[in-house]
Specification:
Layout (H helix, E strand, L loop, with lengths): L5 H5 L17 E10 L6 E12 L5 E10 L4 E5 L8 E2 L6 E10 L4 E11 L13 E6 L16 E3 L2 E3 L1
Parallel strand pairs: 1-10
Antiparallel strand pairs: 1-2, 2-7, 3-6, 3-8, 4-7, 5-6, 8-9
């Protein structure tokens, strides 16, 4: 059981008063069909990564966190990037990454995020020496610590890229 009594845990909009992320274990699962990049227009390809995250329980998530890693040439381009750090490479030749904080996710609930991206057609997302197309999801405590997950092996999703 979690920090809430049964009534408050099952009542939409009501949240528990306390939360112990080291005791209240969750089971988060990301899913995506990948990133589809459209044909280049004026030398730029645009697309979106549609990412759905589900909390399989048994406890709610108070700070839903995820990262996205893509090749260095990719940049954020609209969509649900609010609450995320800039999508940038921290070192030339390495993937661009962003960390997103998306708040509360109740037991049995899913949220879908549309993360718009663009890349120059010349780079085409194939410019990093280390190329990654992945996302990781976790429940975080107040100091960004990772909290236990019942099935951590499914918290990472490597996704495909499709080019029209």
């Amino acid at each position: 059981a979690g920090p809430a009594d049964a009534a408050s845990a099952s009542t939409p909009g009501r949240r528990a008063q306390s939360y112990d992320p080291m005791r209240d274990i969750t089971d988060l699962t990301p899913s995506t069909r990948g990133l589809r990049l459209a044909k280049a227009v004026d030398g730029v390809r645009r697309g979106a990564l549609v990412l759905t995250i589900r909390n399989n329980g048994p406890a709610p998530v108070w700070r839903l966190m995820f990262t996205v890693e893509v090749p260095e040439s990719m940049a954020a381009d609209g969509g649900d990037w609010a609450g995320c750090t800039l999508l940038v490479s921290r070192k030339p030749g390495f993937p661009a990454g962003a960390k997103c904080e998306k708040g509360y996710l109740g037991v049995g609930e899913s949220r879908t995020f549309r993360l718009g991206m663009r890349s120059s057609a010349a780079a085409d997302g194939a410019d990093s020496r280390i190329s990654r197309w992945l996302t990781d999801v976790w429940s975080a405590g107040q100091r960004d610590e990772y909290c236990p997950d019942a099935a951590p092996e499914d918290n990472r999703k490597i996704f495909s890229v499709y080019r029209d």
